[in-house]
Each structure stands twice: as structure tokens, then as C-alpha cells.
Amino acid sequence: MPQRVLLAGSTGLVGGLVAARLAGDDNIDLVSLIRRGSSAPGRAIDYEDLCETPERVLRPIAAEGVDVAISCLGTTIRTAGSQPAMFRVDHDYVLAVAKGAKALGARKFILVTSAGAGGPGFYLQTKGKIEQAVIGLGFEQVDLIRPGFLIGNRNERRMWEAIGQSIFAALTPILPGQLSRYGAIPAETVADAIAKRIADVNPGVTVIDNDGLRRLSGSGR
Predict the structure, then answer these.
(1) How many domains does the chain divide into?
(2) 183: pLDDT confidence band, cut at 50, 70 and 90?
(3) Is residue 160 domain-resident?
(4) pLDDT digits (tens, 9 = 90+) for 107-159
(5) Mean pLDDT of the chain
(6) How far apart are the C-alpha atoms of 51 and 57, rounded to whole Å?
(7) What secondary structure, in 3-state letters, does the chain show?
(8) What is the CATH number of the domain that holds 68?
(9) What is the distance between the alpha carbons of residues 127 and 111, in angstroms, rounded to a whole number?
């Protein structure tokens, strides 16, 4: 029987790549949580009201349940427009997905956050808070995916982002020691690692940074 995977964030950079990989896998029954008016591979469920009415939003799959949940949700203060708006996406929406998935029987939660999660600054503090909130829900397995600077084609790409990608890609090979976790990594590498991690059984909490993502994906990039 295929594993039922609930994916949030399938219209974003990493989430879109994960969705594309899972949609072609006969061992996966993919359910995508999307915003109203968006489209994604697999069956799609609108999550506009997820924070307020999770039971109603998840009702279409309540009878079937969920095996694995993945959150690739994330934004920036610049894109969201304010710190509260960013927190709503990166924390509140993610936590609502996690709670809904847990209620539907999910044993594993794969959460994409960021290198340095929990560190100084609003962005990293938010990432650290959602990591701890998800861990506190009591899933059998939690994988914390902490990529560095993501390289890939975003839907809303600006010139400064393209320049930043080029700079980080050039600097990554020479970053020493622990700094390498903040280096550039292709979004495709991250998506490959997440797709492979779905079938892995490793109870407890596992933190996977750039090096771990490359090993999982089989990529040297």
C-alpha cells in the first residue's frame, strides 16, 4: 500500500521540487496543501483557513489518515511584508499543519527550516521556535532539514537574489569548518534528500544540514 504523504509548501522552490519527485512515485499517495487559486501535483487541499479550522480543511483526508507529513513552507520578511506576517507563515501555518497531521496519525514529520535555526535575529529565532514546537508534538520521528543558501529558480526572482546566488555559490567551496553549513546548496539536492528520507526509519529527532543533505541525495553539490 502506498504511503500517504501530506506536503505543505508545494508551490515554493523546494516544495515544488519535492512534489514533482513524489508525484511520479507509485509508492506515494501525495496530498498537497496549497493556497486558494494555486495548483500542485497530486490531490490538492486548500489551506487558507488551516490555522482557524484545521479539522474542516483536513476533513477530505480524515478517513484515510496520513503516514508522513512534510513542511516546505517558508517566506521572508521582505516577501511577507512584516515580521508578524512572516511569523504566521513560518510558524503558525507550519504548526497547524503539524497538529493536523498528528491528529490524522502521521508518525513522521519532515520540516524544512534553515541553517542556524534558533540563532540571533528574527528569522532564525522563528525557525528555532517552530522546530521546538513540532518536536513538542510527540511525533515518532522528526527530521529537521537545515539547508544553507538555496540555489534555484524561484517564481519571484529579483536581480539581487540572482547576484546573491552567484556570490554564495562561489564562496561555498572555501567556507571553513562549521561555516560550510551556511554555504550554497541546490534546491534540487535538498528535494532529493527529502524524497529519500520519507522511507527511512530513524526514531527521534535528526538534524540534517548541507553535508547530510548532499550525502542523502548522492550529490557532491
Answers:
(1) 1
(2) confident
(3) no
(4) 999 999 999 999 999 999 999 999 999 999 999 999 999 999 898 876 555 54
(5) 86
(6) 9
(7) CCEEEEEECCCCHHHHHHHHHHHCCCCEEEEEEECCCCCCCCEEEECCCCCCCHHHHHHHHCCCCCCEEEECCCCCHHHHCCHHHHHHHHHHHHHHHHHHHHHCCCCEEEEECCCCCCCCCHHHHHHHHHHHHHHCCCCCEEEEECCCEEECCCCCCCHHHHHHHHHHHHHHHHCCHHHHHHCEEEHHHHHHHHHHHCCCCCCEEEEECHHHHHHHHCCCC
(8) 3.40.50.720
(9) 10
- The answer as to whether 174 is a domain residue is no
The pTM of the full predicted model, rounded to 2 decimals, is 0.87
Range of the domain at 211: 3-150+185-217
Cell numbers linked to 61: 483526508
**Single-letter amino acid, residue 192:** D
Q: Is residue 39 part of a domain?
A: yes
Q: Which three cell numbers stand for residue 170?
A: 562561489
Residue 168 lies in a domain: no
